[in-house]
Write a structure and sequence with these properties.
The protein has about 140 residues and is an alpha+beta fold. About 25% of the residues lie in helices and about 45% in strands. The protein has a 7-stranded antiparallel β-sheet with strand order 1-2-3-7-6-5-4, with helices on both faces. The mean pLDDT is about 95.
Amino acid sequence: MKESTKPLKTHLDEINFVSSELKGYQYGVTVDPVRIDSLSQFGTPGEVAARVVTAEVNRDGVFDVTLVKDPIVEESSGSYILNYLSKGKRGNKHFICKISIAKKKLYVMTAQVKEENYNDMEKELMQVVGTFQTN
């Protein structure tokens, strides 16, 4: 993986990495300020997943977004892990993201891969997202 930059910064802080070996495989972390202390104050796992799906489907060039699995709650941190498929003009992409709130900041760790590579990469994606922690 190598660090990648986006042309337009849209978050308080963000970092992205892209694979030099597998086209379409990337992950990143975004950080934004929030007024709440925990993710559960924002909504249940299902409610947060619905908001993420709605935000994704409203992105330019995205035709359809489907939650692939029920959200997972990481009991130790209160984080939610979402697994969804986005279909659009740039192809079909599979996303796994871990959403956390700590110290009035929203942290989102997102890993993505082309849908055609998902089955081969699922274990690695879950491991990468699973290692993300906030303190």
